[in-house]
Structures are given as C-alpha cells and as structure tokens.
Design goal:
- It is a single chain.
- 32% of the residues lie in helices and 15% in strands.
- The model has no long low-confidence stretch (mean pLDDT 94).
- It contains eleven helices and 15 strands.
- The protein is α/β, with parallel strands linked by helices and 370 residues long.
- The protein has two domains: 275 residues, Metal-dependent hydrolases (TIM Barrel, Alpha-Beta Barrel); 69 residues, no CATH class.
- It starts with a strand and ends with a helix.
- The protein is globular, with a radius of gyration of 20 Å.
C-alpha cells in the first residue's frame, strides 16, 4: 500500500470554510502568506517584492492586519494585494489550482496517476476549519481518504469546553480519524506551554495526534530569528512534547513535515544535533519524511542533498517510525506527484525493500489501523 500521510483538500480562499465569513478566512490567508518563505513579486513586471506589507509585525494579529486590498484571484490560482497602487502576489498556493481550491476529486485524479492508494487529509486555518467538509471528502472516497480533526489551538485556554465539543463532533459525528495540533497557534493566546492545564483534555481522545511544531513563542515575536535561535526554540518545543508524551505514554504521535530542515542547513547539508533525538525515547513518536515541499526552492530533483539525512533517520529511528508525506498539492510548486515518490523509490537504493515499504505506507497504515 502506498499511503501519503500529508495532503490537503480545501475550499476557495475567500469562502467561509468553517470561519465566521469569507473575509475572516482571508485574514488567515493574508497572515500565512506574509510569513511564508516563497518569494513575492510585483505583477506588472515580476520584479521581486517584499511580503511584509501584509503583516509587518509578523505576529498573526488578525484584527490589525494592514489594509492592502488582499483578495483571491480565482482565474490564476493566487492571491493579490496592492501596495502604493501596484499589485503583488506570491505562490504559496501552487499555480495550477482552479479557483483557489483543491477538491477531493482533483486529489483522487492525482492519486490515480501517481499510484497512491490512500491519503490522510491535514488541516490548517489558512485552508479552513470545517470538519464537516473534511468528513464529506472522506464520505465521497471512503476507501481512499482519511482526515484529521482541526483544533482552534488559540481558544483552548479561554474556551476549553467549546473546543473539546468541536473536537468530539469532528471525530464522532463527522467521522474524522486523527487530531492535528499546531503549537505556534496556541501561542497566539500567550507564551504558556501547551502540554498542561486545559490542553490536556483537548488532546486526550484516544486517536493519533499529529503535531506541527514551530520554534517556540518567539515565532510570533515579529523579530527575525537567527537559525541558531530557531534551532534552540525547536528543541524547546520537543521538550514540551516529551513532557506531554510522558503523561500519555499510550498516545500515538507523529511530527508533521519532519524537522524544520531549513533551520538545520549547513551549506548544502542538513546537520542534526544529538539533542533532537531525545524525544524519540518515547516509542510512540513518529516522523514524517517530507523534503521536496520544504526545500524544493533550494535543491532540485532527485534531492541528492537530503539522501544522507533520510539514511540517518532510518538508522536512528527505524523505518517503522517514518511515514512518507508530500503536502500535496503544495509540493507541486517544485515537483510532480510521481516525482515525490520517485526520489525515494528509484534513487535511495540504500533502503531495503522492507524499509521502503514501511516508509511509503506501512507505518502510516499501522497508525491509522488500515
């Protein structure tokens, strides 16, 4: 079985999609585009431009984002904003989307062509918060799709019962299968660690929890952080996760995207510190193998620069704790869906057949009880 553990389906950027309104949804899209590393440019002549005017403070302060006429360009599959009379854009979204949405039908078409059997749908506020929509995607293709339940992390401390109720509805009514938890969004409500207090019951539903770790509260400080600060912040987040797993030793967890690879780059190599492996003393912690979407602007197919890192992951953790993921359709910015398989299956010949089978589907299938 080939199982992609990280894909998305989503409604248009200016549709409510589980938010209070289409305008509220667009504010999330604006803040996300401001902080993403994809380059911005001026539409008139494609000259390089800054992303900062959309969120100058870099704080994800949705109520005080600048007015830049941020809007969806449905025909070209991108967002547009205007500064000093000039229209600008960037392709955080891949450029081949129709109407800035990615339907389950489009995903299935890609899966069929690439030979992918099953996918796990992720969720993010930029792409919507509607668990009913994700449940409908699964209902349309019950043999092919599984889905994660969204959590409003920033509301847990002040509205714990409401958030828990929404999670229960997502899992028990809409039939979703796992929980997605994004700690950087918890820090929108303050710098308190997210492993204790009201966060405990919000993450205790007995289903796998997929964590998208950031580099600590400093991610939202508005200040540019050095790679060394990012590395230290990320290790701090792993320490918080370790405490959480000690409280819930039976919980099955995985880190989405793998590690923040860009923070650990040294020239054209990824150098991982010894401390990064400490959290994996917990046997139920898994790691996503996801490189093209994170480093595709720096390295080209077949991504030879990351082969040693994949070999190190297998040596340190074992293939039974690694699961392939692509971030589809966003990885289409850099390679095709078939290539996102090929760089591992055709080129990483250091992998034994049983290791390859675990990474490309076996591990994720076990986590999802398939």
């Amino acid at each position: 079985m080939i199982l992609d553990s990280h894909v998305y389906c989503f409604e248009p950027a200016d549709a409510p999609a589980g938010h209070a309104s289409g305008a509220a949804h667009l504010r999330w899209v604006q803040a996300a585009h401001a902080s993403h590393h994809q380059p911005a440019w001026r539409i008139r002549d494609r000259a390089p431009a800054s992303s900062r005017p959309r969120d100058p403070e870099g704080r994800h302060d949705l109520e005080h984002l600048p007015e830049v006429q941020f809007r969806a360009d449905h025909q070209r599959g991108r967002v547009v904003w205007t500064v000093e009379g000039e229209d600008h854009t960037k392709h955080f979204y891949p450029p081949n989307l129709r109407s800035l949405e990615y339907t389950p039908h489009s995903l299935i078409g890609e899966m069929d062509y690439a030979g992918v059997d099953v996918c796990l749908l992720h969720t993010d506020p930029m792409l919507g918060r509607d668990s009913a929509y994700l449940g409908e995607c699964v209902r349309l293709y019950p043999e092919r799709l599984r889905a994660m339940a969204p959590v409003d992390e920033w509301r847990i401390r002040t509205q714990p019962e409401a958030v828990i109720g929404e999670l229960r509805t997502a899992l028990e009514v809409h039939g979703l299968h796992t929980i997605k938890f994004i700690p950087p969004l918890a820090y929108l409500d303050g710098p308190a660690p997210w492993d204790d207090g009201p966060y405990r019951p919000a993450l205790s539903f007995g289903v796998p929890v997929f964590f998208t770790l950031g580099c600590g509260p400093g991610d939202l400080s508005g200040r540019e952080r050095s790679p060394a600060e990012q590395r230290q912040g990320y290790l701090g987040e792993l320490a918080i996760l370790s405490r959480w797993m000690e409280r819930y030793p039976e919980a099955v967890c995985s880190l989405t995207h793998g590690f923040p690879w860009r923070a650990f780059l040294e020239a054209d190599r990824i150098e991982l510190p010894e401390a990064i492996w400490e959290a994996f003393a917990h046997p139920n912690l898994h790691l996503e193998v996801c490189f093209p979407v994170r480093l595709g602007d720096l390295f080209d197919f077949p991504y030879r620069e990351v082969w040693p890192t994949l070999a190190e992951l297998v040596e340190r953790l074992g293939a039974q704790r690694l699961l392939w993921g692509t971030d589809m359709p966003f990885q289409n910015r850099f390679c095709t869906y078939r290539q996102s398989r090929a760089w591992i299956e055709r080129y990483c010949d250091f992998l034994r057949p049983e290791q390859l089978a675990a990474i490309m589907g076996g591990t994720a299938a076990r986590l999802l009880n398939l």
